[in-house]
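FAQ: What does a ligand-bound record look like?

Like this one, built around NDP:
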Amino acid sequence: MADKNYRAELVGVFGDPVDGNPTGVLEEAGFAAAGLDWRYLTCRVAVEDLADAIRGMRAVGMRGVNLTMPHKIEVIQYLDELSEAARIIGAVNTVIARDGRLIGENTDGKGFVRSLTDAGESLTGKVVTILGAGGAAKAIGVECALAGAAAIHIINRNEGRGAELVRTIAENTPARADYLPWRGTAAIPADTDILINATCVGLFPDVDACPDVRYEDIAPGMLVCDVVFNPAMPLFLKKAEARGARVLTGLGMLVNQGALNFELWTGEKAPRDVMYDALKREFEEA
Ligand code: NDP
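The answer part, i.e. the structure of the complex:
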Protein backbone atom coordinates (compact mmCIF):
# COMPACT_ATOMS: atom_id res chain seq x y z
CA MET A 1 0.00 0.00 0.00
CA ALA A 2 1.33 3.45 -0.93
CA ASP A 3 2.08 5.91 1.87
CA LYS A 4 -1.09 7.71 2.77
CA ASN A 5 -1.77 10.55 5.19
CA TYR A 6 -4.99 9.98 7.10
CA ARG A 7 -4.40 12.93 9.44
CA ALA A 8 -6.41 16.08 8.72
CA GLU A 9 -5.42 19.53 9.98
CA LEU A 10 -7.82 20.73 12.66
CA VAL A 11 -9.32 24.12 13.49
CA GLY A 12 -12.62 25.00 15.12
CA VAL A 13 -14.56 27.15 17.50
CA PHE A 14 -14.88 27.09 21.30
CA GLY A 15 -18.01 28.69 22.75
CA ASP A 16 -21.07 28.16 24.93
CA PRO A 17 -23.69 28.28 23.51
CA VAL A 18 -22.22 27.34 20.16
CA ASP A 19 -24.58 24.85 18.49
CA GLY A 20 -26.09 27.53 16.20
CA ASN A 21 -22.71 28.98 15.12
CA PRO A 22 -22.56 28.67 11.29
CA THR A 23 -18.83 29.43 10.82
CA GLY A 24 -17.98 25.76 10.18
CA VAL A 25 -20.19 25.78 7.08
CA LEU A 26 -18.24 28.53 5.39
CA GLU A 27 -14.77 27.38 6.54
CA GLU A 28 -15.34 23.78 5.40
CA ALA A 29 -16.73 24.99 2.07
CA GLY A 30 -13.53 27.02 1.70
CA PHE A 31 -11.26 24.08 2.61
CA ALA A 32 -13.04 21.79 0.10
CA ALA A 33 -12.84 24.39 -2.69
CA ALA A 34 -9.12 24.96 -1.99
CA GLY A 35 -8.44 21.19 -1.94
CA LEU A 36 -7.24 21.31 1.69
CA ASP A 37 -7.71 18.33 4.02
CA TRP A 38 -8.74 20.50 6.96
CA ARG A 39 -11.71 20.13 9.37
CA TYR A 40 -13.54 22.77 11.42
CA LEU A 41 -14.88 21.44 14.75
CA THR A 42 -17.71 23.25 16.54
CA CYS A 43 -17.04 22.57 20.24
CA ARG A 44 -19.15 23.46 23.26
CA VAL A 45 -16.66 24.54 25.92
CA ALA A 46 -17.99 25.72 29.29
CA VAL A 47 -16.36 28.70 31.02
CA GLU A 48 -14.60 26.52 33.60
CA ASP A 49 -13.21 24.20 30.88
CA LEU A 50 -11.49 26.83 28.72
CA ALA A 51 -7.99 26.28 30.18
CA ASP A 52 -8.25 22.52 29.54
CA ALA A 53 -9.64 23.11 26.05
CA ILE A 54 -6.66 25.32 25.14
CA ARG A 55 -4.23 22.76 26.61
CA GLY A 56 -6.04 20.09 24.58
CA MET A 57 -5.81 22.16 21.45
CA ARG A 58 -2.03 22.45 21.93
CA ALA A 59 -1.77 18.71 22.71
CA VAL A 60 -3.53 17.52 19.56
CA GLY A 61 -1.80 20.09 17.39
CA MET A 62 -4.83 22.07 16.25
CA ARG A 63 -3.80 24.84 13.84
CA GLY A 64 -6.10 27.39 15.43
CA VAL A 65 -9.50 28.12 16.90
CA ASN A 66 -12.16 30.78 16.94
CA LEU A 67 -13.48 31.97 20.28
CA THR A 68 -17.01 33.08 20.77
CA MET A 69 -19.13 33.90 23.82
CA PRO A 70 -18.09 33.74 26.66
CA HIS A 71 -14.37 33.16 25.95
CA LYS A 72 -13.12 36.14 23.92
CA ILE A 73 -11.53 37.95 26.88
CA GLU A 74 -10.80 35.02 29.20
CA VAL A 75 -8.71 33.25 26.54
CA ILE A 76 -6.04 35.99 26.55
CA GLN A 77 -4.35 34.65 29.70
CA TYR A 78 -3.60 31.32 27.94
CA LEU A 79 -1.96 32.82 24.83
CA ASP A 80 1.71 33.56 24.07
CA GLU A 81 1.22 36.69 21.98
CA LEU A 82 -1.44 39.19 20.86
CA SER A 83 -1.80 41.12 17.61
CA GLU A 84 -1.94 44.91 17.87
CA ALA A 85 -5.71 44.93 17.16
CA ALA A 86 -6.44 42.22 19.74
CA ARG A 87 -4.40 44.14 22.32
CA ILE A 88 -6.28 47.40 21.71
CA ILE A 89 -9.70 45.74 21.52
CA GLY A 90 -8.90 43.58 24.55
CA ALA A 91 -10.58 40.52 23.03
CA VAL A 92 -9.58 37.62 20.79
CA ASN A 93 -11.85 35.84 18.31
CA THR A 94 -9.14 33.91 16.50
CA VAL A 95 -6.12 31.97 17.76
CA ILE A 96 -3.38 30.93 15.36
CA ALA A 97 -0.91 28.19 16.33
CA ARG A 98 2.48 29.00 14.85
CA ASP A 99 5.81 27.33 15.73
CA GLY A 100 4.45 26.07 19.03
CA ARG A 101 3.11 29.49 20.03
CA LEU A 102 -0.52 30.59 20.27
CA ILE A 103 -1.17 34.04 18.80
CA GLY A 104 -4.41 35.92 19.51
CA GLU A 105 -6.00 38.05 16.78
CA ASN A 106 -9.33 39.83 16.39
CA THR A 107 -10.84 39.61 12.91
CA ASP A 108 -14.39 40.84 13.73
CA GLY A 109 -13.71 44.51 12.99
CA LYS A 110 -11.37 43.75 10.07
CA GLY A 111 -14.14 41.58 8.57
CA PHE A 112 -16.53 44.51 8.85
CA VAL A 113 -14.08 46.93 7.23
CA ARG A 114 -13.43 44.45 4.39
CA SER A 115 -17.20 44.10 3.79
CA LEU A 116 -17.40 47.90 3.43
CA THR A 117 -14.53 47.85 0.94
CA ASP A 118 -16.24 45.01 -0.98
CA ALA A 119 -19.30 47.26 -1.25
CA GLY A 120 -17.11 50.01 -2.75
CA GLU A 121 -17.22 52.17 0.40
CA SER A 122 -14.29 53.97 1.98
CA LEU A 123 -13.87 55.02 5.60
CA THR A 124 -11.45 57.84 4.93
CA GLY A 125 -12.66 61.02 6.63
CA LYS A 126 -16.08 59.52 7.41
CA VAL A 127 -18.20 60.05 10.54
CA VAL A 128 -19.34 56.68 11.92
CA THR A 129 -22.14 56.25 14.46
CA ILE A 130 -22.16 52.93 16.31
CA LEU A 131 -25.14 51.63 18.30
CA GLY A 132 -23.75 49.47 21.14
CA ALA A 133 -20.45 49.20 22.97
CA GLY A 134 -20.07 45.42 23.39
CA GLY A 135 -17.50 43.14 21.78
CA ALA A 136 -18.63 43.64 18.17
CA ALA A 137 -18.94 47.42 18.61
CA LYS A 138 -15.47 47.63 20.12
CA ALA A 139 -13.84 45.66 17.31
CA ILE A 140 -15.69 47.65 14.64
CA GLY A 141 -15.05 51.03 16.32
CA VAL A 142 -11.30 50.44 16.65
CA GLU A 143 -10.86 49.06 13.11
CA CYS A 144 -12.97 51.84 11.51
CA ALA A 145 -10.82 54.39 13.34
CA LEU A 146 -7.59 52.66 12.27
CA ALA A 147 -8.94 52.51 8.67
CA GLY A 148 -9.21 56.31 8.51
CA ALA A 149 -12.61 57.34 9.92
CA ALA A 150 -12.47 60.97 11.13
CA ALA A 151 -14.88 60.56 14.03
CA ILE A 152 -16.80 57.84 15.85
CA HIS A 153 -19.99 58.48 17.85
CA ILE A 154 -20.82 55.72 20.34
CA ILE A 155 -24.47 55.44 21.41
CA ASN A 156 -24.98 52.98 24.26
CA ARG A 157 -27.34 52.40 27.21
CA ASN A 158 -24.57 51.51 29.67
CA GLU A 159 -22.52 54.68 30.13
CA GLY A 160 -19.45 52.96 31.60
CA ARG A 161 -19.09 50.63 28.60
CA GLY A 162 -19.76 53.47 26.14
CA ALA A 163 -17.21 55.79 27.77
CA GLU A 164 -14.59 53.04 27.93
CA LEU A 165 -14.90 52.38 24.20
CA VAL A 166 -14.54 56.12 23.50
CA ARG A 167 -11.37 56.15 25.62
CA THR A 168 -9.98 53.09 23.82
CA ILE A 169 -10.50 54.72 20.40
CA ALA A 170 -9.15 58.11 21.50
CA GLU A 171 -6.02 56.64 23.13
CA ASN A 172 -5.10 54.21 20.34
CA THR A 173 -6.17 55.78 17.05
CA PRO A 174 -6.10 59.19 15.36
CA ALA A 175 -9.94 59.42 15.20
CA ARG A 176 -12.10 61.67 17.38
CA ALA A 177 -14.61 59.79 19.53
CA ASP A 178 -17.52 60.72 21.76
CA TYR A 179 -20.20 59.03 23.84
CA LEU A 180 -23.90 59.77 23.45
CA PRO A 181 -26.28 58.38 26.09
CA TRP A 182 -29.10 56.06 24.98
CA ARG A 183 -32.17 56.76 27.09
CA GLY A 184 -35.50 56.12 25.39
CA THR A 185 -35.44 56.78 21.64
CA ALA A 186 -31.94 57.78 20.51
CA ALA A 187 -31.39 60.59 17.99
CA ILE A 188 -28.91 59.87 15.18
CA PRO A 189 -26.29 62.65 14.87
CA ALA A 190 -26.89 64.66 11.69
CA ASP A 191 -23.22 64.42 10.58
CA THR A 192 -23.39 60.59 10.38
CA ASP A 193 -22.08 59.05 7.13
CA ILE A 194 -22.17 55.42 8.28
CA LEU A 195 -24.62 54.10 10.91
CA ILE A 196 -24.00 50.64 12.36
CA ASN A 197 -26.22 48.53 14.59
CA ALA A 198 -23.63 46.66 16.69
CA THR A 199 -26.15 45.50 19.30
CA CYS A 200 -27.83 42.09 19.26
CA VAL A 201 -31.27 43.70 18.82
CA GLY A 202 -33.12 42.01 15.95
CA LEU A 203 -31.22 38.72 16.21
CA PHE A 204 -33.27 35.54 15.62
CA PRO A 205 -35.72 34.67 17.20
CA ASP A 206 -36.48 38.33 18.11
CA VAL A 207 -36.89 39.26 14.46
CA ASP A 208 -39.65 41.82 15.13
CA ALA A 209 -37.30 43.89 17.33
CA CYS A 210 -35.19 46.80 16.11
CA PRO A 211 -33.00 49.37 17.90
CA ASP A 212 -34.97 52.18 19.52
CA VAL A 213 -33.67 55.10 17.44
CA ARG A 214 -35.33 58.05 15.65
CA TYR A 215 -35.68 56.52 12.19
CA GLU A 216 -36.67 59.89 10.69
CA ASP A 217 -33.03 60.98 11.36
CA ILE A 218 -31.80 58.43 8.79
CA ALA A 219 -31.05 60.39 5.63
CA PRO A 220 -30.90 58.97 2.06
CA GLY A 221 -27.14 59.70 1.85
CA MET A 222 -26.29 57.45 4.81
CA LEU A 223 -24.91 53.93 4.64
CA VAL A 224 -26.67 51.82 7.28
CA CYS A 225 -25.14 48.51 8.40
CA ASP A 226 -26.10 45.71 10.79
CA VAL A 227 -23.90 43.12 12.53
CA VAL A 228 -26.91 40.83 12.95
CA PHE A 229 -26.70 38.19 10.20
CA ASN A 230 -29.66 36.01 11.18
CA PRO A 231 -32.04 37.10 9.69
CA ALA A 232 -29.95 38.31 6.76
CA MET A 233 -32.22 41.36 6.36
CA PRO A 234 -33.13 42.54 9.90
CA LEU A 235 -36.00 44.97 10.51
CA PHE A 236 -33.43 47.73 11.25
CA LEU A 237 -32.12 47.56 7.68
CA LYS A 238 -35.62 47.33 6.21
CA LYS A 239 -36.57 50.55 8.02
CA ALA A 240 -33.34 52.26 6.91
CA GLU A 241 -33.97 51.20 3.32
CA ALA A 242 -37.50 52.64 3.53
CA ARG A 243 -35.84 55.98 4.47
CA GLY A 244 -33.82 55.81 1.22
CA ALA A 245 -30.49 54.81 2.82
CA ARG A 246 -28.10 52.27 1.30
CA VAL A 247 -27.77 49.17 3.49
CA LEU A 248 -25.12 46.54 4.22
CA THR A 249 -26.05 43.24 5.91
CA GLY A 250 -24.00 41.37 8.54
CA LEU A 251 -23.37 38.45 6.17
CA GLY A 252 -20.46 40.23 4.50
CA MET A 253 -18.78 40.82 7.88
CA LEU A 254 -19.25 37.17 8.84
CA VAL A 255 -17.87 35.84 5.56
CA ASN A 256 -14.95 38.25 5.57
CA GLN A 257 -13.87 37.46 9.11
CA GLY A 258 -14.15 33.76 8.18
CA ALA A 259 -12.01 34.42 5.12
CA LEU A 260 -9.41 36.27 7.20
CA ASN A 261 -9.28 33.34 9.65
CA PHE A 262 -8.86 30.94 6.72
CA GLU A 263 -5.93 32.97 5.41
CA LEU A 264 -4.27 33.32 8.84
CA TRP A 265 -4.53 29.57 9.48
CA THR A 266 -3.72 28.12 6.04
CA GLY A 267 -1.56 30.88 4.54
CA GLU A 268 -3.63 30.57 1.35
CA LYS A 269 -6.08 32.97 -0.28
CA ALA A 270 -9.64 32.24 0.82
CA PRO A 271 -12.21 31.33 -1.86
CA ARG A 272 -14.58 34.02 -0.57
CA ASP A 273 -17.29 33.57 -3.23
CA VAL A 274 -17.60 29.88 -2.43
CA MET A 275 -17.71 30.63 1.31
CA TYR A 276 -20.36 33.34 0.83
CA ASP A 277 -22.54 31.06 -1.34
CA ALA A 278 -22.29 28.21 1.20
CA LEU A 279 -23.46 30.50 4.00
CA LYS A 280 -26.28 31.99 1.94
CA ARG A 281 -27.49 28.51 0.99
CA GLU A 282 -27.38 27.50 4.63
CA PHE A 283 -29.62 30.41 5.67
CA GLU A 284 -32.02 29.86 2.76
CA GLU A 285 -32.43 26.21 3.74
CA ALA A 286 -32.81 26.94 7.46
P1 NDP B 1 -22.18 41.99 23.66
O1 NDP B 1 -23.03 41.25 24.63
O2 NDP B 1 -20.73 42.13 23.92
O3 NDP B 1 -22.78 43.48 23.48
C1 NDP B 1 -24.14 43.70 23.25
C2 NDP B 1 -24.39 45.19 23.08
O4 NDP B 1 -25.76 45.35 22.71
C3 NDP B 1 -24.17 46.02 24.34
O5 NDP B 1 -23.58 47.23 23.99
C4 NDP B 1 -25.60 46.25 24.85
O6 NDP B 1 -25.76 47.48 25.50
C5 NDP B 1 -26.36 46.32 23.56
N1 NDP B 1 -27.77 45.99 23.73
C6 NDP B 1 -28.32 44.77 24.04
N2 NDP B 1 -29.67 44.87 24.08
C7 NDP B 1 -29.98 46.16 23.79
C8 NDP B 1 -31.20 46.88 23.66
N3 NDP B 1 -32.39 46.30 23.84
N4 NDP B 1 -31.14 48.20 23.34
C9 NDP B 1 -29.95 48.81 23.14
N5 NDP B 1 -28.76 48.18 23.25
C10 NDP B 1 -28.78 46.87 23.56
O7 NDP B 1 -22.45 41.28 22.25
P2 NDP B 1 -21.50 41.27 20.97
O8 NDP B 1 -20.99 42.64 20.75
O9 NDP B 1 -20.54 40.16 21.07
O10 NDP B 1 -22.52 40.87 19.81
C11 NDP B 1 -23.47 41.81 19.32
C12 NDP B 1 -24.07 41.26 18.03
O11 NDP B 1 -23.06 41.18 17.04
C13 NDP B 1 -24.67 39.85 18.14
O12 NDP B 1 -25.92 39.86 17.48
C14 NDP B 1 -23.68 39.00 17.36
O13 NDP B 1 -24.32 37.89 16.74
C15 NDP B 1 -23.22 39.98 16.31
N6 NDP B 1 -21.93 39.64 15.70
C16 NDP B 1 -21.88 39.54 14.33
C17 NDP B 1 -20.70 39.24 13.70
C18 NDP B 1 -20.69 39.14 12.21
O14 NDP B 1 -19.69 38.62 11.69
N7 NDP B 1 -21.70 39.62 11.49
C19 NDP B 1 -19.46 39.02 14.46
C20 NDP B 1 -19.59 39.21 15.90
C21 NDP B 1 -20.80 39.49 16.47
P3 NDP B 1 -25.37 47.75 27.06
O15 NDP B 1 -23.86 47.87 27.06
O16 NDP B 1 -26.05 49.03 27.36
O17 NDP B 1 -25.88 46.57 27.82
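Follow-up question: can I read anything off the structure? Yes, for example: Residues 108, 111, 132-137, 156-158, 161, 199-201, 203, 211, 227-229, 250, 253-254, 257 surround NDP (CB under 6 Å).
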